[in-house]
Design goal:
about 120 residues, mainly alpha, three-stranded antiparallel β-sheet, about 60% helix, elongated
Length: about 120
């Protein structure tokens, strides 16, 4: 499992870890039951604090992406399709919010943005 931490990102390190592990689960790189590195091992490989990794794992567990068992470690949860769908919708909302902000500040009409969205959405059909 490869996680890349960017010091240039505005996202905190724990959020970078969380989002990359979520992405690996959603795209199927990590499957149900797959082990996740221990907090100490991941912290050591990324040269960061164990507390930072702990925060990321707590968020992943809270959101239902991983399960942690004392003495056994952390594993990918039996994926609840609703969790994955909710996460993908959240990502789409972030992109749409950014597009709306760009549209407003640039004078692009809402109708034009909707037209562009329809065009991109139907592009592969």
């Amino acid at each position: 499992m490869e996680i890349i931490i960017s010091s240039n990102s505005s996202k905190p390190i724990y959020e970078q870890i969380t989002s990359q592990i979520k992405a690996m689960i959603m795209e199927g790189t990590l499957q149900t039951g797959d082990p996740i590195p221990s907090m100490r091992s991941l912290a050591k490989s990324l040269h960061i604090s164990v507390i930072t990794v702990q925060k990321a794992y707590e968020d992943l567990q809270r959101d239902g992406f991983i399960e942690t068992t004392v003495g056994r470690g952390s594993f990918v949860s039996a994926c609840n399709r609703d969790f994955i769908l909710e996460e993908q919708q959240r990502q789409a909302e972030e992109c749409l919010q950014q597009a709306a902000e760009i549209g407003r500040s640039s004078g692009i009409s809402c109708e034009k943005l909707v037209e562009l969205l329809r065009l991109f959405y139907n592009e592969e059909e």
